[in-house]
Amino acid sequence: MKLMRIGAPGAETPCVMAADGSARDVSSLVGDFTPDTIGGAQAALAGADLGALPVVATEGTRIAAPMTRPTNIYCIGLNYSDHAKEAGHPIPKEPILFNKSRAAYCGPNDPILYSPRMTKLDWEVELAIVIGKPTPFNLAPDAALDHVFGYAVANDVSERAWQSERGGQWSKGKSFPNFCPFGPVIVTPDELGDPQNLRVWLDVNGQRMQTGNTRTMIFDCATIVSHLTEFMALEPGDVILTGTPPGVGLGMKPPTFLKIGDVVTLGIDGLGTQRQVVTAL
Q1: For the chain, which residues score pLDDT lower than 70?
Q2: Could you give the number of structural domains in the chain?
Q3: Which sign does the torsion angle of CA 157, 91, 153, 38 carry?
């Protein structure tokens, strides 16, 4: 099942992709896809005759984030060995955890906002996990994916100077508005298949910057979810960004960063694509 939301901010329509590729309005069945409803969305939609529901146009219409703003956005740092190397860090012995502000969450094609105080604006394509039901503490890895509702594309936009040169934790450089483009869809595990064999890519102005595959993650999705439950209770609608492959601007020689007018496109096999334009605040 592929869930998406279509429409202007504050007027989004929840949809499911039908077999013919059309987006079907399911607001009569679930109201909206929110952290409160996402856990039960699949059951609510099971057996629905999607072909009988209204079609929602996707051309020329804003594609919104496929779920309303999550309660929590957790992120795993340096989860690809080549990315750790380009960033000048050792391969982590356990998942590195940080947070993004939930206010950074936005639609997959919404602009990346550029503040006059930014100097090192960077990109990171990532596989995102959406939690579907509450987790117990110390959840075993072999049970972890039973608590996942689905997967999505995310861009972990980062202002590197704020992240590394302004003191404090990484969240300072990760949490500006529109620093977490998300979607266009959430895909449930039964439709996506193995989350550890997905091609990941990102272009800037048509030039390929990142190419990777989730099979090369240091810590796989099951390990990440299990690890987090040692320290916190994960809740339905929580989002986890699982790390980025090599090719970020910071790792280039010389380092290369985004500027106003740049176009960022990215995607993951089976999960769709995003397109953002860097726009002055």
Answers
A1: none
A2: 2
A3: negative
